[in-house]
Amino acid sequence: MKPTPTFPPDRTPLLAFGAHPDDIEFGCGGVVAGETQGGRAAHFVICSRGEAATHGTPAQRTAEAKRAAKLLGATVEFVDLGGDAHIEASIARTLKLAAIIRRVRPGFVLAPSVVENQHPDHIALGRMVRDAARLARYGGVKELKRLPLHAIGQLLFYAVTSEAEPAPLAKVLIDVSAPEVLAAWTAAMAAHASQTQARRYIELQLTRARLHGLRCGVGHAIALFPNDPLHFDSLEQLGGAARRF
Amino acid sequence: MKPTPTFPPDRTPLLAFGAHPDDIEFGCGGVVAGETQGGRAAHFVICSRGEAATHGTPAQRTAEAKRAAKLLGATVEFVDLGGDAHIEASIARTLKLAAIIRRVRPGFVLAPSVVENQHPDHIALGRMVRDAARLARYGGVKELKRLPLHAIGQLLFYAVTSEAEPAPLAKVLIDVSAPEVLAAWTAAMAAHASQTQARRYIELQLTRARLHGLRCGVGHAIALFPNDPLHFDSLEQLGGAARRF
Amino acid sequence: MKPTPTFPPDRTPLLAFGAHPDDIEFGCGGVVAGETQGGRAAHFVICSRGEAATHGTPAQRTAEAKRAAKLLGATVEFVDLGGDAHIEASIARTLKLAAIIRRVRPGFVLAPSVVENQHPDHIALGRMVRDAARLARYGGVKELKRLPLHAIGQLLFYAVTSEAEPAPLAKVLIDVSAPEVLAAWTAAMAAHASQTQARRYIELQLTRARLHGLRCGVGHAIALFPNDPLHFDSLEQLGGAARRF
Amino acid sequence: MKPTPTFPPDRTPLLAFGAHPDDIEFGCGGVVAGETQGGRAAHFVICSRGEAATHGTPAQRTAEAKRAAKLLGATVEFVDLGGDAHIEASIARTLKLAAIIRRVRPGFVLAPSVVENQHPDHIALGRMVRDAARLARYGGVKELKRLPLHAIGQLLFYAVTSEAEPAPLAKVLIDVSAPEVLAAWTAAMAAHASQTQARRYIELQLTRARLHGLRCGVGHAIALFPNDPLHFDSLEQLGGAARRF
Amino acid sequence: MKPTPTFPPDRTPLLAFGAHPDDIEFGCGGVVAGETQGGRAAHFVICSRGEAATHGTPAQRTAEAKRAAKLLGATVEFVDLGGDAHIEASIARTLKLAAIIRRVRPGFVLAPSVVENQHPDHIALGRMVRDAARLARYGGVKELKRLPLHAIGQLLFYAVTSEAEPAPLAKVLIDVSAPEVLAAWTAAMAAHASQTQARRYIELQLTRARLHGLRCGVGHAIALFPNDPLHFDSLEQLGGAARRF
Amino acid sequence: MKPTPTFPPDRTPLLAFGAHPDDIEFGCGGVVAGETQGGRAAHFVICSRGEAATHGTPAQRTAEAKRAAKLLGATVEFVDLGGDAHIEASIARTLKLAAIIRRVRPGFVLAPSVVENQHPDHIALGRMVRDAARLARYGGVKELKRLPLHAIGQLLFYAVTSEAEPAPLAKVLIDVSAPEVLAAWTAAMAAHASQTQARRYIELQLTRARLHGLRCGVGHAIALFPNDPLHFDSLEQLGGAARRF
C-alpha cells in the first residue's frame, strides 16, 4: 500500500492503448474524436502490427493505423509486447506501459476490457494497463525511477465487441452524435481497409452505437466501463439517465 | 411502451421519499444538505408516522421529521400508504406517488433501495417510486389525467444500512465533506432523538460515510445507486474516480 | 410438489402473452413469424387495450393488434387483468392465465421477461405466466378442474427493450433473417401506427436484431431467455455457437 | 429502523415453516432429525393441506404430515394462508406468522428459499417468514402487541429442489450422516406416501444430500442458506471446509 | 479482429482435452460414449501423465488412459505442457494446442472449465484451449502457417467436480441414460483403477449425473457449459426444458 | 484428481501470507491477535520488503514488520517471490509456498483476496497460496517430496481494502472487540510508521472494522472470506447472525 499524489483530470491528455492497429478505432474511436475536437490532446499506443491477421501486411496495418489516428486528431506510437497473438501479461511489460504513462501524464486512460472470453491479446493488455496505472503512482519501482510519479485521473475500459462488455461494471454512455464526430470516427474505421473488406466491422460498431444512442435519446453513443466508482460534488454533475424506453 | 417528453434536469427540485420519519435523514441526509445549501429546492414525502416502532410516539416522530427536514432546508409532507410496517406495493398506491411526482415536477428523485433483505416497507416503497416515475410519463393513465405529464431527470436509490446497498448496480459517491453540510446532516439525524437513544444510528451513518470518503480522498461521502446508466457529452463531465488505496 | 405428465413439444401451438397491444410484436414478432411460416399454429393473449398510453385510443390499439397478429399468422384474444398500467400479480389472475394454458395446450410459451427495472405491467405479467405454467400441471387446483392438466414444453422470456434482457439467464438466439420472416415482422410492427409515430420502436427492434445477427453471422436474430436449462440427446442438436468476432 | 433485544440462540426451539405438508421433510428433514435427536425442541408450521395436489386428499396429507413430524420428533400446527396454490404474500399474513414467532420464541427459523423460479407458494412463504422475523422485533406493531417482542437467532433458508438453491448466498452444509438421523429423515419422507408414489422425491433428496456429503467427506449433508453473514468469536468455531476433491 | 471461415459442425470429429489421464472420463465420459456410439469420431489430448498424483505411476496412468479411451471409442495422444501440477498458461503452449485443433479439425471441442477454485492445471488448460480455438482461425500466426485455418463449431466446458461448474454460464444437459452409454462410461472410469481405489470418484460422477437426470426426467445426464450463446433456426431445435420438479 | 488425508483443524498453527510488510497487519491483524491471545501459534510469511514503496527503505520496512509480528504474537519469515511490484504467479513460486505449508502444517491459512482490481502483487500471491494449499496435498509432486503431505483445515481470504472484498463469496465476521485484541492490532499497524505517515491506513482499517462491528452488535469485527462452504455437525455451531439493523 503506497500513497498517491492527487491530480486534476481536467485538460490533461487522453492516452489510449490498443492491442492491434484497429482496436482503438473500433472500440472507442468516436469518444476520441469528440475529445480531440473539443480541444484535448490524444495519444495512441499500439502494441502490435497486426502481423497474425488473415488480411493485411504489417506495413499496411501500420500505415492504416497512422492514417486513422490522424483522422481522429491523435498522435501514435508503436510498442512491442511480443507481437500480435503473442501478448502475454508480465511485470516487465507492465512496467514498460507504466513508463509510457509517466511520460505522457494522461488524465484519462482508455484500455481494452478484461472480459476473459475475447481475443487473448485484449485481456492481457487490459490487465497490464490497469496494473501499470497503479504502479505508475509508486515511488520505489526501480525501472521507473527516471520518470516522475504520475497518478492518472481515471481508467476507462472500452469493448471491441458486444461480447467484451464487462457486465458487472457500471457503464457510462458518451454521446458521439455530433456530425463531425461521427464522420471522423467512421473515416478512421474505414482507414483500416485491409480489415473492413472481410468483415462488417464498421456496421457492427455503428449498430452498437446506434442502439446505445436510442437508449439515451441521442443519435449515437459509446459505452465505457469505469474501473472505479465515480465521485461527484453534487447531483448536478451526474449527467442524464440513459433511458428513453 | 409510451413516449416521454424530455426534461432538463438542472435547477428542478429534488424529491425524496422515505418509508419512516427518519429514513431520508439516515440514508442520504448529507446529499440533501449539499443540494439545498447549493440552492436547489428539496421536498420530502414521508410515508408513515413510525407508529410500529418500539420507541417514540407518532406525534413525536412527526415533530422530529419536521424539525429534521427544516435543518436540511427541505419542505415535507406526509402520505398514508397503510401505516408503518403495513406498506404493501399496489398500483393504487403507486399512482398516488406518481401524482406527487407530477405535482412536484422534480429533476432528481431519491428513494430507498429495492434490495430484498431489509425492512419490508423500504423495498415496497422503493419499487413503487420506481414504477411511479415511469407511470408519471404516460398520457393515458386516468387517475393522473388532471396533472400534466412529467419525466424525471434521474432516479437514485439510497441505502439506510450497508446491507441495503444494491451490489450489482453502479455506485456513485457524492462528497458531503463541507463542514456546514456535515453539520446540517448530523443535526438532522440527531433531531430523531426517539430513535437514536436506542441504537447507534448516527455513528453507523457517519462511519459508512467516512469509509466512502476515505475511498475517494475526501472527508465524508454518501453512496447513491442510479437506476439507469449515466450518459455524458464528454469525458470531462465524468468526475473523479473513487480510489485512493 | 406435484407430478407432471410428460408432453412432446413438437407440433403443439405456440402461445404468446403480451401486456400491451404491441409488446409481442416488438419483443419477439420475428420469432413468431418464423414459426407460423414453418407451419406451427400461434395464439396471442393480450392483457390490456393500451388505454394508459399517450397515443392511440383503446379501439385503435385493438384494431392495430388484430391486424398485426394477422400479419404474423396468429390468432388473438384479449383478457382483462385490471387494465393498462394496472396489472398487478395475484393468484386469481394467475389462475386465469393457467386456464388459458390448459385450453390452448401449447408446446412453447412466450412471455415478457421478469427483469424489475421496466414497465411494471411487463414484470407482473411475466411472473404470472411463469407461475401459471406451473399451476397448469397440478391436479387439485379447484378453479382449473374443468380443464385437463397440461405441462408446457418450454417457457421462453422475450425482452421488449435491451434493458429488459435478463443478464444472468442463458440466452439463445433465433435466426429471423429469411426475407419473408423479416418482412412479416416489420409489417406487424408498423401495424401499430399509433405508437411508432412517436418513438423509433421499429428502428430499436431492428437494430437489436441486427446486432444479434452480426454476432452469429446471419442477417437478423432475436434473443430469447429460457426459464430452465435446455437438455438434448446429443451434441448434434446444440445448434451453432453465436460468435463471429 | 427499530431496536432489537439480543437473544442467546443456544437451547431455544427450532421453528420450521412449510408451504405444503411435505416441504419441510423433503427440504431439511435431516437437519431437524439431527437437532431433535440432540435434544432441541422443534415445531412445524404447515401453511396448507396440499389441497391443490394431483395425488392425495387434504385429510390424507394432514395425516401424513402429522406422522412425519412425529418421526422427526417435532410438534406441528397448521395455519391457513389462503390454501395450496393460493398463498400470496401480504402484510396481514406476515403478521400472522410474526405472532407465531413471538409465541414459539425460536432460536433458529427454517423457511423455504426465496428463489423466484419455483412453486409460487414457496417464495411467498419464504418472503413472509423473512419479514415476519423482522417485524417480530418491533415494539409498536398493534396486531402483535399482546405478545412480547422476540428476536430470532438466525433465519436459514432450505431448498426443496436443487433449482431452489439461492446461488449468491453463502451456503453451509450440515452433516446428517448419523444412521439414526438418516433413518428418521427417510422414514419421515416415506410417510408422505401419497406424494412419493408419483415422483422420485426421496431419491432426489438423498441424491442431493449424498452429493453434498461427498463434497465434505461425510455420508450425507444438507445445504442451508443463512439470510445474514455468520459471526464468530474465533476461527476455531468456523467448522470445517467442505472440499474433498 | 480477424475473419473466420464458416464450418458446418455436423459429422466432424469431437476433440476433448484433459489435464490429467482421468479428467475427460470423470468430467464428460458419458457424453463421449454417446457420441461415439452414435457414429462420431472422438480424439483425446491428454496433457500430463499424472506424475504428481499420490497413487499410480506415470506408466500405469498412461495405460489406464489408453484403455479408458478405447472403452469410449476414442483415439488418444499425449502432449507435454510442463507436466502434472506444472501446467502454466503461455502463448507457446496455446499455439501447440491450436496446431492440434488445425490438425484434427473438430466440430465440438471439450475442455475443463475455467472456474478459478479448482486444480490449477485444469484452469490453465481450459483457458489455453479457449484461446487456441480462437487463434486457430487467424491466418497470420507464423507458428501455425503450415496447417490450414480451422474454425471449430463449438467450445463446451466440462466440470470434473461440482465445484468447477461455472455458475454464470448457460448450462445444457446431455442425456447419457442409454444402458450401453452408461456402461461404457462406468467402465472407462473404472479403468483408472489407481485413482478410484483412494476416493469415491465414480460414485461422485454418477451421483452428479443422476441428480441432473432427475431434473430433466431421464436416467442420467451430464452438464456442459457452452462458451458462447447457442443459436437456432427455429424453436423446434431447442430441445426440452430440464425441469421435472 | 488426487486423494487428501483428513486433518483435525483444532490447535494447529495459523499461517498468514502477506505480499508486503504491512498487508497482514492491515488486512487481518485483529484476527491474528485474537487467535494468539487465545493460545494458537501464528506464523507470518512476507513476500517482499516493500522496496517499491514511495516511503520507507527495505531495511526500515523489515524492521517494522518484525516488530508488528511480535506485537501480534507471531513468528515471521521473509520469502523472495521477485520483489515488491514484481510478484508474478508461477508454478515454481507456488511450489515454494506449498513447501512452506508442508513445513508449518497449519490448520487455518490466511491470504490476500483474489479480487482483480487491486495491487497486482496481492492477487498473484492470493492465487498462488490457494493453489499451493491444493498442491501440498498431492503425493507425487517431485519438488515437495522431501516433506510429508499436508492438507490444511481452511483457507480464508482477507481484504487489505474495502475494494478487495470478494463480493460473491460468503463472508464471515470475526469479533475483534476485546480491548487487548484491539490494542495489539492497533499497535501492530502503528509499527508500520513509514506507511502510516502518508495515508490514513489505520483509520481506514478501524473504520471498516467498526462498520462490521455495528452490523453484528459488537465493538469491532473483521470480515474473512472462506474459499469453500463451511460445514457443521449441528446448527448450534453456526454462531450468530450478523444483523442488528
Provide a descriptive summary of the structure in words.
6 copies of one chain form a homohexamer. Chain A has 7 helices and 9 strands; from the N terminus they run βαβαβαβαββαααβββ. With 245 residues, chain A is α/β, with parallel strands linked by helices. In chain A, α1 (23-37) packs antiparallel against α5 (179-190), α2 (58-71) packs antiparallel against α5 (179-190) and α3 packs across α4. The longest helix of chain A is centred in the middle third of the chain and has 16 residues, at 120-135. Chains in contact: A-B, A-C, A-E, A-F, B-C, B-D, B-F, C-D, C-E, D-E, D-F, E-F.
User: Helical stretch count of chain A?
Assistant: 7
What is the H/E string of chain A? EHEHEHEHEEHHHEEE
Q: What ranges of chain A have pLDDT less than 50 throughout 5 or more consecutive residues?
A: 1-9
- The 3D shape of chain A can be described as globular
Largest interface: A-B, 50 and 50 residues
Give me the side-by-side strand order of the main sheet of chain A.
3-2-1-4-5-7-6
Q: Biggest β-sheet of chain A, characterized?
A: 7 strands, mixed
- Seen as an oligomer or otherwise, the chain set is homohexamer
Total number of strands of chain A: 9
Q: What distance lies between the first and last C-alpha atoms of chain A, to the nearest angstrom?
A: 45 Å
Structural class of chain A: alpha/beta
**What's the helical proportion of residues of chain A?**
25-40%
User: What is the residue-mean pLDDT of chain A, rounded to a whole number?
Assistant: 88
Rg result of chain A: 17 Å
What percentage of the residues of chain A does DSSP assign to strands (E)?
15-25%
